[in-house]
Amino acid sequence: MILLVGSIGSFFGGFGYWSPGYGHVPLGSLASSLKEANYPVPFGGGYLSRAEGYGIVGRFVIGGGGFTLKFFKSTSPDYNSSAEARANYLSVGYVAFAKGDIFVFPSVGLGGGSVGVKVQEAKAGNFNDILRDPPIYIHAVGEGLFLKGDITLLYRYGLLLVGLTAGMGYVKPYNWTVNGNATTGYPTDDYPVFYLSLNFGGGWIGFGGGDEDVGDDWSDEEE
Fold it and tell me: What CATH class is the domain 10-215?
């Protein structure tokens, strides 16, 4: 097994992982608009699913990824509401620490993201009556710029990787639609995204040398 040993030196290779976890987005004036319309407000947090892939050159980690955050639903006697946030981005990081089979890298990313809510009327009855008077359905989505910064810790066992990522993103919508149609008078908030996730994946990371103090600590096989 190739060992990651030492706090200095350079690296090469690539890796990727899937990251389930928890995310939270304060909904701000979007939540206020739902309340004013007497709709239930989705809880600001929920299940997060991320995926990222990177190549390593020297100590720079270059790649990208994306995520989907599905908020916990909220219900009332008449309506169900849900929300989600999405993003895709390019990301650049730097291996700040490596020792044993553990390495840590902070990264920043830039791409596109969105925040959206769905409201559906809980309506039952005769089929033909429902067709003539359908239940309310609202799908509002704000799309725009996404920025993120996080720090990732990974532990490698052979070609397998496990780890943890904690970070914060930022969605700045500049275009809103309701049921696919452009709209005006939309919320002007920006939306911070806080997240914590576990990482499960794999890859290969080699040591490129560059320092006598750590060069002898790397080997193709574990002693």
Answer: mainly beta
